[in-house]
Specification:
The chain has 460 residues and is an alpha/beta fold. Helix content is 39%, strand content 17%. The protein folds into 3 domains: 44-186 and 347-359, Rossmann fold (3-Layer(aba) Sandwich), CATH 3.40.50.720; 188-342, no CATH class; 372-458, Antifreeze-like/N-acetylneuraminic acid synthase C-terminal domain (Type Iii Antifreeze Protein Isoform Hplc 12, Alpha-Beta Complex), CATH 3.90.1210. It has helices at residues 3-18, 31-41, 54-65, 79-89, 105-109, 119-124, 138-150, 160-177, 188-202, 227-232, 237-244, 247-260, 279-282, 319-327, 349-359, 403-409, 444-458; strands at residues 23-24, 27-28, 45-50, 69-75, 96-99, 113-116, 130-133, 154-157, 181-183, 206-212, 263-264, 297-301, 310-315, 335-340, 372-378, 396-402, 421-422, 437-438. Strands 5-6-4-3-7-8-9 form a 7-stranded parallel beta sheet, sandwiched between helices. The model is unreliable at 1-21 (pLDDT under 50).
Length: 460
């Protein structure tokens, strides 16, 4: 190696040690290369994980397969789940040690994994560079994100339900603190964003973006009917129902909308059985044979063969471009679908944690002003005095609206529903509104949502 090459090598190593973006002679290193540099330096990206259920356990196992990154602290309401996740991950995972109080440093310093009972302690631990929320609870996710960003740490949000409720506020707080707020790679929203960025970089208007729904669409689904299937799939029945009743799809499509300015074309979206090879024929304007009343929509298909993929429909009208697309057997145009046939859910999320620390990069974050909202529709008749349960349970399901519609109707944001009190009767199938339901004003997510509303109002 030349003298200059040696100096460059040392510079790369020094920057990798401190978590700065790393460069080689040709430009920035790839993420894989940057992680390798961290591994060689003995300075892996240090991760804190909140929530060790299905997704959290996946994080433990996946990170144990990687170099240059490790989990050093974790929190779960059931500490035995942390131990089980470590055991499942094998020898490359730190062994857990239960920590009481907020002093995690000594345990981490001994090479052990700090298993804490207090999530805020993990968020604030000096050794933790980035926190991943895998709780699945909007209020818990809000608390984790605010504590993490407040401590000057990067935040990876797997909790899309929290993001669609207060994501604009969290992103702004992160910007103000000089840290990264990002949704995790591997979920449908961030996977779709890869295609959206690709199409936008090529200069083509986006007509629609979306996903294939990967479970039957049954809007009245309740956990009682899915216990056996959930057990077979190693899932919580509530989480499975959140997918089946469409709530998760509404959340994911609104997350895309709020990060791009796209919108649901109609309340609840269309959700046709659009085959993979005909997506562009469904998600195009009505006057050209499609479903859309406007271009720039988020939507989903229930046809087999689309899930677990994501798609973007682009408008490409130049005759030369259409000639080339025809040569490539991609259709006559002017609408073309771009398709990613998979998303790896929690297995990709560590890439977002690494990118945040090494490159200061967000894989996906909301715009300053949301374009859409996830409201709630009653699954059954609701009586005054009832307390609403969690997403994916018995009382309500998520329902996508434009922000303008949600404001006009006074829609109750999905992330504020759990623990809210019904104040006037709501019939099955009716939209829950702030006139019929009182959110829990003591919750952290309610305070953050008020702060977000004030922030948006101040922007005019």
């Amino acid at each position: 190696m030349t003298a200059d090459g040696g100096a460059m090598g040392r510079s790369v190593m020094d920057k990798a040690k401190t978590g700065q973006a790393v460069m080689d002679q040709g430009g920035r290193l790839s993420l894989a290369e940057a992680l390798e540099v961290r591994e060689r330096a003995g300075k892996p990206v240090r991760v804190g994980v909140i929530g060790c259920g299905q997704m959290g356990t996946d994080l433990f196992v996946q990170i144990a397969q990687m170099q240059g990154i490790e989990i050093v602290a974790a929190c779960d309401m059931r500490p035995e789940r942390i131990e089980a996740a470590c055991k499942m991950s094998g020898d490359r995972c730190r062994q857990p040690e239960v920590v009481s109080g907020s002093n995690l440093s000594a345990t981490i310093g001994r090479g052990r994994l700090a298993a804490a009972s207090d999530p805020v302690a993990v968020c604030r631990a000096p050794e933790v560079e980035v926190v991943i929320d895998a709780t699945g609870n909007p209020n818990a996710g809000a608390a984790v994100a605010l504590a993490t960003i407040g401590a000057g740490k990067h935040m990876v949000m797997m909790n899309v339900e929290a993001d669609v409720t207060i994501g604009a506020y969290l992103a702004e707080e992160a910007r103000r603190k000089g840290v990264v707020y990002t949704l995790g790679a591997g979920d449908e929203p961030s996977s779709a964003m890869e295609l959206i960025r690709f199409v936008k970089a090529l200069g083509y208007p986006i007509v629609a973006a979306g996903k294939g729904k990967n479970n039957p669409f049954r809007i009245d689904a309740i956990p009682d009917d899915y216990k056996a299937e959930a057990e077979q799939r190693n899932m919580n029945p509530r989480m499975l129902v959140e997918f089946v009743d469409g709530s998760k799809t509404m959340v994911e499509m609104v997350a895309i909308a709020n990060a791009t300015g796209l919108m649901p074309d109609i309340p609840g979206m269309h959700g046709p059985a659009a085959p993979r090879d005909q997506l562009q024929n469904y998600f195009c304007p009505k006057e050209e044979g499609g479903l859309l009343s406007r271009k720039g929509a988020v939507d989903f298909s229930v046809a087999k063969g689309v899930a677990p993929g994501v798609f973007v429909v682009a408008e490409m009208r130049h005759p030369r471009v259409r000639e080339r697309m025809s040569d490539l057997h991609l259709g006559p145009g002017p609408y073309y679908s771009f398709f990613r046939p998979y998303h790896l859910t929690s297995l990709e999320v560590p890439l977002s944690a690494a990118a945040a620390v090494l490159f200061g990069e967000s894989h996906m974050r909301p715009l300053q002003v949301p374009s859409a909202e996830v409201g709630c529709v009653a699954k059954r008749d609701l009586k005054p005095g009832e307390t609403l349960d969690a997403i994916g349970e018995y009382c309500y399901r998520g329902f996508a609206l434009t922000r303008a519609d949600a404001l006009a109707k006074g829609a109750l944001p999905l992330g504020l529903a759990q623990g809210a009190k019904v104040t006037s009767a709501v019939t099955k199938g009716q939209l829950l509104t702030l006139a019929s339901v009182q959110p829990d004003v003591t919750s952290g997510i309610y305070a953050a949502r008020r702060a977000q509303d004030e922030m948006i109002a101040a922007r005019g």
